[in-house]
Amino acid sequence: MSESGEFVSALIDFLAASPTSYHAVATVADRLSAAGFTHMDEQQRWSGVGGKRFLVRGGAVVAWIVPEILTDNVGFRVVGAHTDSPALKLKPKADLWVAGWQQLNMEVYGGPLINSFLDRELGLAGRIVDLDGTEHLVRTGPVMRVSQLAPHLDRSVNDRLTIDRQAELMPSFGLGDEPDIVTLLCDQAGISPAVFAFADVLSYPTEAPAVFGNNGEFLASSRLDDLSSVFPALNALTKLESGPDVAVFAAFDHEEVGSATTSGAQGPLLADTLARIAGGLGATGDAWYAMLARSSCVSSDAAHSVNPNHVGKYDPLSRPMMNQGPVLKVSAQQRYATDASTAALWERACREADVPHQVFVSNNDVPCGSTIGPLTATRLGIPTVDAGIPILSMHSAREMCGTADPEYLSRALTAYWQGA
Ligand code: ZN
To answer: What confidence score (pLDDT) does residue 367 get?
Structure first.
């Protein structure tokens, strides 16, 4: 198998193991441990911060490598990404019965392309917490589906699909009433329903990722936004030779719902972790602020490839193509954190890694989304650049990317951490 073929098959394994943010973080933690990183308990005082370490908070993970030789000019080089994706989320009271069907009552998490979740076998995955506070990861196989109405019963259905989020999005789960959802999830976790307290459980598309295209140049999967950044960053970090600065990888939860949580990018997770690392290296008070001022951040999140059926939605000159490298994201409104200085940093990293790269800027009539980049930049005052691989069908249950780009991104992140 070619080098990029090996990279894509490792990415496919990672995607398949990571149906939710909680699973993604467990997968990342396993890989970090296997690569010699030490798990740090946030609740304990840290006696050391050097070498390779990581911590986990909910659906977020922060990992770092302190260089073996610390100069007076050491800073942080942070790569940020996110672990969550749009989905349906189980409501607290979820068992529903309609016309002989056993259904599930669910709400919408983030901003999915809702039609892509229809007529698709979905599983349930996430965490359940028992009464003494112990968390259990759970994951079912395909158990449910939201079926569309046939055009025979709604002749206007193809005019413009509109979906009532309460009436039309409830998945069918079985016939009759056994087992109820709590029993099913507790069976998965191996605990008694008597000790069940609450669930953070979401839908996930059960279809396996697949390579396709005229020359096998595309990859289809759920959750490429943003595991197409998480995996390349993880891969780069676990193979990293020590660089000049503290290499930090922060994968946050809850980006799709605004990041304002304890494990999201608007919360204190990254700032507090960096402060603890700096404190452990003796950089407190004025030295801490100087260390921050010597730092930088790459906010890595999926970008928009040009869609050939909708070219009018894109800028006429900056139309990212698949397999032409990671995309630098620019916005005059600072929806992305990139500026000329951080763009130059990114350019250096891509050149150093011998990786092609390209640019996305919005069509003026089509405002773009945002990322964790502006959040980390405003919280910490660290110069930040937004970049990510080009994908299509962003927020669909089945997104697609090019098979060459994830490895390009990983190489560029390696070069960034090594001091580009
Ligand atoms: Zn994203």
So the answer is: 82
pLDDT band at residue 370 using 50, 70 and 90 as cut-offs? confident
Query: Is residue 213, in this structure, part of any structural domain at all?
Result: no
- How many of the other CB atoms lie within 10 Å of CB of 13? 13
Ligand 1 centroid to Cα of residue 234, in Å, is 16
Those residues with Cβ within 8 angstroms of residue 350's Cβ, 6 or more apart along the chain or in another chain: 325, 326, 356, 357, 412, 415
8 Å CB contact between 117 and 397: yes
Task: Dump pLDDT digits (tens) for 97-116.
Answer: 999 999 999 999 999 999 99
Query: Is the domain of 170 the same as that of 237?
Result: no
Residue 341 Cα to ligand 1 middle (Å): 23
- Predicted local distance difference test score (pLDDT) of residue 4: 75
Gap from CA of 224 to ligand 1 centroid (Å): 8
Residues in the chain: 420
- 87 has pLDDT over 60: yes
Helices (H), 190-285: 224-238, 269-280
Distance 229 CA to ligand 1 centre (A): 9
The total number of structural domains that make up the chain: 2
- Whether the model clears a pTM of 0.85, i.e. scores above it, the answer is yes
Q: What is the pLDDT of residue 158?
A: 85
Identify the CATH number of the domain in which residue 131 sits. 2.30.250.10
**Are 81 and 110 in the same domain?**
no
Pair (229, 93) in one structural domain: no
Residues 403, 258 share a domain = yes
SS3 label, residue 44: coil
Examine the domain organization and report whether 323 and 398 are in the same domain. yes
Whole-number Å distance, alpha carbon 355 to ligand 1 midpoint, is: 22
**How far apart are the CA of 370 and the centre of ligand 1, in A?**
8
333 and 389 belong to one structural domain = yes
Paired tokens of 206: 């059960």
- pLDDT of 2 reads 67
- Is the same domain home to 259 and 372? yes
Please say if the pLDDT value at position 352 is more than 80: yes
Q: Which residues are placed with Cβ below 5 angstroms of ligand 1, an ion? A: 225-226, 301
- Domain range for 398: 3-85+222-417
